[in-house]
Design a protein that fits this description.
This protein is mostly beta strands and about 250 residues long. Helix content is about 5%, strand content about 35%. The longest helix has 14 residues.
């Protein structure tokens, strides 16, 4: 029995290792006719990147917010398998004036098959811009400027955490905790209600930023949370797609 347990220990440890490799300058970016030597050096602090197909052409575009009340748009002029980013005109989105701590999040909140834009900036509530774009033509319309949410330094994440077919909303804050807003509506019509401002008793110190993904391919969403100091916490979901149960792993 002891021998069996000892043999299993390396397997358990290996199961928690994810072989990520950092790559530098592998996706080209052009600014007009100029291609910078270091693609993503834009002088931004507290950058909040979010990928979405905003022009409905089948590949991922990039929107980046930051602390300095700036929002940058990078349009992907390449293909789904070979990205080629160009600096786009943020005016294409038709957004209201943004303030500091700009945090974008893409999500299809009206169930029409394209990704709408949730935008949080300090000190206002998150806003929803509905995506009315067609291939090659970008068009966003302000649909809701009073979404439920925290009103200071909101870092947004959307995920169907209860597997009921619609997106729920999570938000980090300056205190290192997570707010959870469950969607009691439908895929076509959201109805957010705050469940807790201390989700899963998570506290990463300050300036929490959540990201969900099924990192272990077991059918439910796991959680990664970054913080001000540059650390990332990994919480494994040991529950089910319908009922989450998070365990701190590292």
């Amino acid at each position: 029995m002891i021998v069996t347990i000892l043999l299993l220990i390396p397997l358990c440890l290996w199961a928690q290792e994810f072989p990520f490799v950092q790559e530098y300058d592998t996706i080209p970016v052009t600014l007009g006719e100029w291609q910078p030597p270091v693609s993503w050096t834009t002088g931004m602090s507290f950058s909040y990147p979010a990928f979405g197909d905003l022009d409905s052409d089948g590949d991922w575009d990039l929107l980046v917010g930051n602390i300095q009340n700036e929002l940058y748009l990078f349009l992907n002029q390449g293909s789904p398998i070979q990205a080629q980013f160009t600096w786009g005109d943020i005016g294409l989105l038709g957004l209201d004036t943004v303030r500091s701590w700009v945090n974008p999040e893409w999500c299809d909140l009206d169930g029409d098959g394209d990704e709408d834009l949730l935008l949080a900036d300090e000190p206002s509530l998150p806003k929803l811009y509905r995506n009315e774009s067609t291939p090659g033509q970008v068009s966003f319309i302000l649909a809701d400027d009073s979404l439920t949410g925290p009103t200071w330094v909101a870092t947004l994440a959307t995920v169907d955490i209860d597997a009921d077919g619609d997106f729920d909303l999570f938000s980090g804050n300056q205190y290192g905790r997570l707010h959870f807003f469950q969607n009691f509506g439908t895929p076509q019509q959201y109805t957010f209600q705050q469940v807790t401002n201390y989700f899963a008793a998570i506290d990463v110190g300050s300036f929490s930023e959540p990201v969900f993904c099924d990192i272990d391919s077991d059918g439910d969403f796991d959680l990664f949370v970054g913080n001000y100091s540059g650390r990332i916490w990994y919480y494994r979901n040991d529950g089910t797609p319908q009922q989450y149960s998070f365990t701190l792993v590292s």
